[in-house]
Amino acid sequence: MAVGGNPKSALRAARQRFGLAIAVIGGNPMYFKTYADLYHRANEQLGHPRGPVSVHSPGLVAATDAEARERIFEDWKTQQRHTGAERGWPAPTNGQFNMELDHGSLYAGSPETVAKKIARTVKNLNLDRFVLKYSNGPAPHEHALESIRLYGEDVIPLVREILGRPA
Length: 167
What we know:
By secondary structure, the chain is of the alpha/beta class. The chain contains six helices and five strands; from the N terminus they run βαβαβααβαβα. Strands 1, 2, 3, 4 and 5 form a five-stranded parallel beta sheet that branches. It comes from Corynebacterium maris DSM 45190. Keywords: Monooxygenase, Oxidoreductase.
């Protein structure tokens, strides 16, 4: 069951014996640890086995950090404006973009940068899965394909290596 910041949804997922998928589209992903922990405690209290927890976040993988930042910036701004209009958020800023890249839930950069950030999120939230939403708007097809290729060939193996998990 997908949740985006509602503790009742995390509890409902545990009661229904569903896995928990946390959609993190902005802000520090560690904020969502409370929902993952709540879900695990609820499963334990209900006598259910440990259910899987995943995070779903936007990003883009390119050969270099600079290239990824350049490719995703305009699409990120467009998506933030659209979502913000629906939710009453202020217009996105360059500072917000940099914060999301450096400390937030935008996973864009070189394979090494993205892998380190994903591994940190997986470890800190005790995740079973991480899903990268590789398109943050109308990215050119060749950029999407490159991002998918780099994610599968480079990022995932690096994350497994960082976390000490088998390939």
